[in-house]
């Protein structure tokens, strides 16, 4: 027998079950994304600790190494690219690239491929052993370095070469190449400890962002609007239609272009006037000079003041959240999804609370991906 509440209905239990299933699914998705990022950061931390090479690693390569030079990493599939229109690149730094969208296997505009071969990272330089020759980028002579955020292309400028060149790598190998090149450059300037400190800070910050499980809802928390598919939005739309349709029917009847005026005139018996109404004019008192008195000026009646909505259109909630443009909310209350329609993977967001154009709520405000699958951002939720 189905469970019922004190009124004998079962919709409250069905609502609570759907809400709890959705919350568990959202929580598991957020935890999975958090763990992937945590594993990646810890992998980079371990790699930065153990990253080292040896002279034996360069055995068999057609590359002469200096006395204190060792091979750190090699990739047999790389392409040499050159830029047609040279621009000044930012100076190389030791910043560990943040997580971005997956790289696309495309070549940026203005970049042409001139050779292909093996890319080798040593303790003193980056080398491409190509079919047309060798191209070196010594760390001590690099003046500019830039990684394309959308394509697996790295561009480099050096002192002894006017044209900007670089490498185009396979998409799956580009992230590791960029991180290992950063480590090699850090070793060249004796700053590997700075990279390790940066990774430790990123791991500590990420640990603070671990998702937490929200409390389960009970049938007693169900609202009457939850019984209607779409909730309060459906009720509001239905109420607006119920008000607009009768008004439109009264305003214009498509079956009668005259709006029923002729029928009303035919049904109403016309009075028999003795004098034409246009000729009847009321007597106006005049003064001694025959000038009619002026009518008193009437001030317009003030329109009734409207009551200001304290939440500026936000749904009623005990959290004090509204759309009035106050302080942005970056750490919402755990029960925020009890009062707002949260998007899937809500707790995976890294920003502030915003409302999407379809009415749902996202925690990715301030980012380009906010409400990407919900028709964009409509407004900010404040407190």
Task: Report the CATH C-level class of the domain at 68-187.
Answer: Mainly Beta
Helix content: 25-40%
Main sheet specs: 7 strands, antiparallel
Low-confidence stretches: 253-291, 295-307
What best-fitting shape do the alpha-carbon axes yield?
elongated
For this structure, the CATH topology of the domain at 68-187 is: PH-domain like
Rg, Å, rounded: 36 Å
Tell me what the CATH architecture of the domain at 68-187 is.
Roll
In DSSP terms (H or I, runs of 4 or more residues), the helix count works out at: 6
Q: What series of H and E elements makes up the topology?
A: HEEEEEEEHHHHHEEE
Q: How many beta-strand segments? A: 10
What portion of the residues fall into strands of 2 or more residues?
15-25%
Structural features, described:
The protein has a domain at 68-187: Roll (PH-domain like). 27% of the residues lie in helices and 17% in strands. The chain contains six helices and ten strands. A hairpin with a 2-residue loop joins strand 3 and strand 4 (133-138). Helix 1 packs antiparallel against helix 3 and helix 2 packs across helix 3 (192-207).
Outline:
Helices cover about 25% and strands about 15% of the residues.
List keywords for this structure.
alpha+beta, about 375 residues, 6 helices, PH-domain like, about 15% strand, 7-stranded antiparallel beta sheet
List the helices and strands and how they pair.
Layout: H1 11-50, E1 71-83, E2 111-122, E3 125-130, E4 133-138, E5 142-147, E6 153-158, E7 165-168, H2 174-188, H3 192-207, H4 232-251, H5 261-267, H6 336-339, E8 352-356, E9 361-365, E10 377-380
Antiparallel strand pairs: 1-2, 1-7, 2-3, 3-4, 5-6, 6-7, 8-9, 8-10
């Amino acid at each position: 027998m189905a469970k019922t509440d004190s009124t004998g209905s079962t919709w409250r239990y069905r609502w609570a079950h759907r809400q709890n299933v959705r919350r568990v699914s959202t929580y598991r998705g957020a935890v999975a994304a958090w763990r992937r990022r945590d594993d990646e950061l810890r992998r980079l931390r371990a790699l930065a600790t153990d990253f080292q090479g040896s002279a034996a690693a360069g055995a068999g390569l057609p590359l002469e190494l200096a006395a204190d030079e060792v091979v750190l990493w090699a990739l047999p599939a790389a392409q040499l690219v050159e830029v047609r229109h040279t621009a000044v690149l930012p100076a190389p730094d030791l910043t560990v690239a943040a997580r971005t969208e997956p790289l696309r296997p495309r070549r940026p505009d203005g970049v042409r491929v001139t050779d292909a071969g093996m890319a080798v990272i040593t303790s003193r330089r980056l080398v491409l052993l190509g079919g047309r020759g060798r191209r070196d980028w010594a760390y001590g002579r690099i003046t500019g370095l830039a990684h394309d955020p959308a394509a697996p292309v790295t561009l480099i400028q050096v002192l002894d070469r006017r044209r900007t060149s670089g490498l185009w790598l396979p998409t799956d190998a580009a992230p590791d190449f960029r991180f290992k090149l950063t480590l090699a450059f850090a070793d060249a300037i004796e700053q590997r400890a700075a990279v390790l400190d940066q990774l430790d800070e990123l791991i500590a910050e990420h640990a603070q962002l671990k998702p937490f499980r929200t409390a389960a809802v009970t049938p007693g928390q169900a609202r009457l609007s939850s019984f209607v598919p779409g909730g309060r939005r459906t009720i509001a739309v239905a109420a607006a239609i119920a008000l607009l349709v009768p008004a439109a029917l009264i305003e214009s009847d498509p079956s009668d272009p005259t709006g029923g005026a002729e029928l009303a005139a035919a049904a109403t018996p016309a009075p028999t006037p003795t004098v034409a109404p246009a000729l009847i004019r009321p007597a106006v008192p005049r003064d001694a000079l025959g000038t009619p008195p002026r009518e008193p000026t009437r001030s317009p009646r003030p329109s009734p003041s409207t009551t200001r909505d304290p939440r500026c259109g936000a749904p009623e909630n005990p959290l004090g959240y509204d759309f009035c443009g106050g302080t942005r909310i970056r750490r919402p209350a755990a029960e925020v999804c009890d009062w707002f329609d949260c998007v899937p993977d809500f707790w995976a967001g890294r920003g502030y609370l915003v409302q999407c154009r379809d009415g749902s709520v996202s925690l990715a405000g301030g980012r380009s991906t906010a409400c990407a699958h919900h028709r964009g951002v409509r407004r900010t939720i404040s407190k």
